[in-house]
Amino acid sequence: MKVTIVGTGYVGLVSGTCFAEMGNNVVCIDIDEAKVDQMRAGQLPIYEPGLELFFERNLKDERLTFTTSLEEGVKHGDVIFLALPTPPSEDGSADLSYVMGVAQQIAEMQAADPAIGYKVIVDKSTVPVGTADKVTEVMESAGLSRGEHFDVVSNPEFLREGVAVDDFMKPERVVIGTDSEQASDIMTQLYEPFVRQGNAILTMDARSAEMTKYAANSLLATRISFMNEIANVCERVGANVDDVRIGIGQDSRIGKRFLYSGIGFGGSCFPKDVQALHRTARANDYDFKVLDAVLAVNDRQRVRLAEDVVAHFDGDLEGKRIGVWGLAFKPNTDDIREAPSHIIIRHLQEHGAKVQAFDPEAMGTTREVLGDTIIYAADAYSALDEVDALVICTEWHEFRRPDFMKMHRRMKQPLVFDGRNVYHPERMAELGFEYYSIGRPHFAPTKEPAASLMDVDVSNEQPA
Ligand SMILES: NC(=O)c1ccc[n+]([C@@H]2O[C@H](COP(=O)([O-])OP(=O)(O)OC[C@H]3O[C@@H](n4cnc5c(N)ncnc54)[C@H](O)[C@@H]3O)[C@@H](O)[C@H]2O)c1
Question: Domain residues for 448?
């Protein structure tokens, strides 16, 4: 099938590449010329595990091409995906200007050239309920007829950055929101190769599809905020949130996944999607109280570890050097949008600290935002040189089993604030570290840890 993708960010580029991998002929469009040049030259503009192989293969086989010309893309694709940004507006609602702007351009191009023929226009971006209807109105206002010249489909994307290729190639479900049988058939044909193991292609009306995406992200964010509240209470009553998590996760009604406490959720989706659903509810005379709490808890949680550091040093970090491990909002991505690490870093700096940080993939993206306000370490251990404390913000694999002896040697003092509960508190104390984590007991560190202890695995494995 001929497919066009408008917007080649984390969603558009992964979708386009995976559609090409299935044999489709894909044209990807972006307004960022430098990015398009980079992709044409065979370089990926983002870090996403597993993407490179498919990207290189399909670029070479010319099933995947890149352009800045929307017209080229509109002429090419039987199906045109809009994978455009929907950032939060000032009032928290989703900014639809990118999606509606491109929809308007497509409408004008199609109206001006009858030879372009029938297109399925797909909202792949996360968009508020009613957006498919708005896109339909734009097309109809240009004199185009639904069913004859176009149909609009809501096809929300559920991929997770870091495992996006796997998620796209084997989606747990595909949601297709449309009333048009014709469009639904085309979308089903396109997605069938991805669900050969029997996962569902769910067809529903567009409004329900749009709502499904917001409901999914908001429920996941709610789990995180709920577990963070449980963790905060655990600390106060002397319970261990790890044991509580395992205890409740055995209940099949609850399930084991997505129950980890930490320093709150970030990324380009959860914060903005929870806010946008809250706005949609309010615009429809409904006060969605749970979502207020989810956001308030998250705001508090994203700063609490930094507050713990400040409190440890009696409110003053002047002259203190703090190491940070992890800048990405989660492991296996270079995405730093809404990353808790950045909120923590700013808080530490406001209290006078100098920050030196390391992240395996997100140093470049962080530099674009924080510039030279922090020191970028060459590797994890260099980030520890002469630091008064280490703060762990992202649970990359390489931080799970470090050389603790080396850490002791390089840090000014063995003090660790772990925002991702990567290690066991008791073992860290035995290794001589003053160790603070989220929702778990604190143990006084052994004064002189035996060197033999340094070689033990203390990592507290947390599957993604
Ligand atoms: N990132 C995720 O994990 C994820 C997952 C599911 C859904 N989503 C949703 O998908 C949408 C896209 O997210 P993303 O993370 O891929 O965004 P992104 O910011 O990474 O990418 C958007 C791309 O669109 C391009 N663009 C902007 N205006 C354009 C225009 N007029 N024409 C062509 N290209 C244009 C930008 O240059 C950029 O490359 C959002 O609505 C988001 O909420 C994201």
Answer: 205-464
Phi, psi of 153, rounded to the nearest 5 degrees: -125, 140
Contact 27 CB / ligand 1 (< 6 Å): no
The CATH number for 19's domain is 3.40.50.720
User: CA-to-CA distance for 286 and 288, rounded, in angstroms?
Assistant: 6
Catalytic annotation, residues: 269
Is the CB of 9 within 6 Å of ligand 1?
Answer: yes
Least confident of 332-336, 354-358, 411-415, 460-464: 460-464
Confirm or reject: Cβ of 445 under 6 Å from ligand 1: no
Task: Let me know whether 249 and 320 are in one domain.
Answer: yes
| Domain end (from 182, 202, 222) | 202
pLDDT of residue 464: 44
Burial of 455 (0-12, 13-18, 19+ CB in 10 A): exposed
Whose Cα sits closest to atom 11 in ligand 1? 125
Look at residues 321, 329, 310 and name the one whose alpha carbon lies nearest to residue 262: 329
> What is the 11 CA–ligand 1 centroid distance (Å)?
6
> What percentage of the chain carries pLDDT values higher than 70?
97
Residue 410 DSSP code: H
Q: Among the three residues 167, 187, 202, which one is the final residue of a domain in this structure?
A: 202
Q: What's the CA-to-centroid distance between 107 and ligand 1, angstroms?
A: 20
- Structure tokens that stand for 151 in this block: 């149909």
- Ligand 1 centroid to Cα of residue 124, in Å, is 9
